[in-house]
Structure formats: structure tokens, C-alpha cells
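Our consortium's second objective concerns turning raw sequence data into structural hypotheses that experimental partners can test. To show how far this objective has progressed, the report includes one record in full. It was chosen at random from the queue rather than selected for favorable results. The single chain below, 584 residues long, was entered without modification.
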Amino acid sequence: MEGSWVVVGPTGGEGRVGATNIGRLRQGKAARGGAGVTSWDLRVFAGVVGFMGCLLLVASLLMSAVHQVQFRNGPISVNFRGLQEVKQNLVRKEQAEQIMHERLIQMATLATTKNESDSDNFALWEEPYQQARKWKPCAAKHSLADEEPGKNNNGYILISANGGLNQQRVAVCNAVVVAALLNATLVLPRFLYSSVWKDKSQFGDIYQEDYFVNYMKSDVRIVKDLPPHLQSVDFEAIGSQITDNDIMKEAEPSEFIKSALPVLRKNHVVHFLGFDVCLPLQRLRCRCNFHALKFTPEIQKLGSLLVQRLRGVSEMQTEMDKQLFGGNMIDAVSGEEHTDDAGGPSRYLALHMRFEVDMVAYSLCEFGGGEEERRELHAFRETHFPALATRLRNITVSPEELRSQGRCPLTPEEAGLILSALGYDHRTFMYVAGSQIYGGATRLRPLTRLYPNLVTKEDILSSDELAPIKNFSSRLAALDFIACASSDVFAVTDSGSQLSSLVSGYRVYHGRGRAPTLHPNRKRYAQILSEEGGIEWSGFQKRVRTMVEEYKRVRARPRGRTVYRQPRTPGCMCRAGGDGSVDF
């Protein structure tokens, strides 16, 4: 019985002692023929409690030792602190799994624990290389003479970008395009402080300033600060401040020329505040995103250490490595190298799950948590999305309809089902980008049951190694970017995520046809899941594989799709012909 102990008395008899029984011991003579509670009784009681406490401590140490031995026999010899602690807490607290697709999970568990992966007819670790290798990076080519910065400069462009690392990265490259379009000098972009991200990092804390300025100098003039006579100007007062409300996100170049150029010529400076725009001038955006933006040496070194430990090798050698780390690759890692069954370096899959509370709340979907979940998400919207919360008071939203339209983020459970259907078995080593999963351990457990070898950057890097950047979300996000870009396979669960888009495009551009990305169609996947009651595992597996295979087909960028995610487009990538010619 919880909260009770067995006490052995001087006569060898036993008595169960709990909170109420301790009170009875204090009642006096009636319990022991007139004798009160003696000091000997209390000493025995204290001794037993102390003995049991020692037993619990020893048991805890033994369990910790067993865990370390098991892990050291695994792919990477480091101390888990992130997802591994979550999984241990699950066992200790005996929390119930939060499962939405029990029948499929049971079948997936059987499939992933087979001795051999059921993947003979499906390339788990490859993309259709024969088609992908025909596309070559072309944005590095120097500008033509008539595209170089004009001598009659119209003034200075200053932007203040909001959001996290990836939103800011997009804003920086769009700012390059605007500056070139308006024949202006670009001041190094500034990053707004966000109450969500809570990071005061600026451009130079994340990217190499001098490299960026020098690489883009043939396209646009870039300076680190405004000239002294403009530094104290009140942009709003003189009419030089332009916000997202003034220019639409999908505005054409002509709109910038019409709205911003007259102001620039008059005041010699324009400040774009927020700057959430998307301009259809691809070559400069590609040069900026895929070549000019290099992480700082501090981030590059830490990122190379992270990737080496994930791979279990002591040297870096791919084209992706060169682009991500430059000359700041760590030469060796501590510990022995790990190889897979084939004798080569170990492979890992990177999974980006966009299932944080902000995404879940904003989606307006339901995820099996009942009334408690609805109250929690409603409260979050009231605090963080007041405009959305106000709008919801006057409209009715159907979570079922949203799910059927593919507008609900995938849960860890649903992501695990996709990977299981594709043939990844329970031994697959998996890096999870970010770990703030809504619902915590309870929500994560269905995935960890299928794939116990889940790690995050906090698991691979020590506290001391992460200490310099631990309070800077953008720099931590840069490590996730690096780990995902370098992975053997990158699995996406949300097409609207900037990280997913940027990493997918980076892998297409620099991957040389050897960097596959798994991308589910959420609308089709919702249809498959809606029929789970009558579908067998083979049927589920076939439909999921067909869904993912369609995205992996190599094709030019469809009209209207962002070049950051799909760079196979003129001015960014070139397609080589069979005779060696190149189609620009």
C-alpha cells in the first residue's frame, strides 16, 4: 500500500505503519498494555525508513548504470539529457500514452521490430539520383556587367526583420533584392526582439558579416551602418518608414518602385519595418541564401562537432560539409568511430516536427486530448493570438473539416506511422529538430516506442559545449538547420515551416542529388488515416509510399513556389543535357 512501511518489533511481529498508524503509536498506553511509545520503537522505525531509502538509492544508481551501458553499446557514446530523459520519465511516472491511431500503432510496432527492414523495393536512403544529378548550382556565377551596382546610388535601405532564425534569413535575402531593385545601398539587416523567441542576437552574432558583404558586392553595395548624418533620423516622422501594412507580402517589383523609390530619392533612406515580403527575382535570392550567408565560426565548429557525433566519424568530406562549415570543421571527435552493419559511416535521419503549442493552437485542430486540451489551447490563443480568438467568437470551425483538408500539423505518432510504412525499422537513428513538443512525454511516447534511438542537440552536445549559445534561440536553431541539412534523409511534417522549406531547398541545391527529403501530402494522409479501421498494414504501407514517392520526383520549380524550397529554376540551378550542354 502506497505510503506505508513494514516495521519489525522486538518480538519479531509485523505491523503495517502508515500515516494513521503512526498516529495510533502516539495514543499511549492502550496500544501496548499501558506502555507508551518507547525511544527504542522510534529508533527501529527510523532505522527501517533509512534502510529502505538506501535501497531506493542503490536501485536508482543501478538503473542509471544499466542505461549508460546500453547506450554506450549503441551508435553514439554520449550522455542523454534531452529526449532520453523524457523517455525515462515516461517509465518512472507510468504516464499513459496519448494515442489517436491505436490499431495502426500496433501494426507499426510489429513492422518496425522485424529483424530486417521491409524495404527491398523502396529506396530509404536515396533519391532518384539519375534525374537529380542533372541539376547543377548556378547562382554562384558572377553578375553580368549591366547588373552591377549603379554609380548613381539612390540612398540607403534599412530593414528590421521579425520572427526567428529562418524567417529572418528569408528577410535578409529579400532585402538584397529590394536594394538591387531600387539601386540603393543596403545596411546590414537588423533583427527585432521577439517575446516569443526571446533572442537579442543580431546579424553578426549568427552570420559572417565580412563574407556576406564581399560575396554580394558585385550585386549590391552593403555597409554595416548608416552614415552619421542619418543615424539619428526619425524615419516615421519624415515618412521613410514602410511597414508590412503598406506593401503586400506578394507585391510585384513595380509596387516597390512605385511606393518606395520616390521616398528613397527624397529622403535618401527607407526603413522597412517587419519586412515580410516575397519578391520574384530569383538569382539574387539564390546567391544570398545558398552562398553568401555563412554561419559564424563559433556556430560552424559546434555544428561540425554535432554532425560528426551523429555520423560517428572523425572527418567531414561531402559538398554539404564544405558549404556549411568551410574551414571551421573539427578534425576529430572523442571516442571510437561507429560504423553500420555494412562497414561504412553510420547514417541518420533528421525529423522536423512542427508540433509546438503555438502551431497546435493556431491550427484550430483537435488532437485527441478532449475537453482539457480544448481549454488549454483556447487559453493560449486568448493570450498569444488575441485577434484569432476574437474572430473565433463569431464563427464556427470544424476540426474534422480542417483535418480532411490537410491543415492540421502531424503529431509525433502520425510522423512515426509514416516512417514505419516507408520501412525504417526500430534501429533507425533519428535526430529531432527542436524538442518542445506539445503534450510533452505523453504525446511523444508513441514515437519513441517505434523509434527508441531519438536524439536532439542537447543529447549529443554537452552542457559545457552548448553553454555559449544556450540562451540564444536563433543560434540553437542554426544547429538544427545544420544537423537537418547534413542528414542522410530529412523528413518533413509541415510544408509551411520555414525551417523545413529552407533545409529542403539547401539539400536540393548543395546535395548533388544525394540528399533525399521525405515530404507527406497532409491532405492525402488525412484521407488514408480516416480509413484506418478497414485498412491492413500492407495497404497502408503501399498508399503512404506512393504519397511520399510522388514528392520525391525531380522536377523544375512549379510557378508560385518559393525558390528557397525548390531552387530548380533558371538563374538558380541549371539543367545539364545529355551532350554536356547546360540549359540556363
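The partners drew two points from this record. The two ends are 76 Å apart (CA to CA). Residues 129 and 245 are 44 Å apart (CA to CA). Both points have been shared with the crystallography group to help prioritize constructs.
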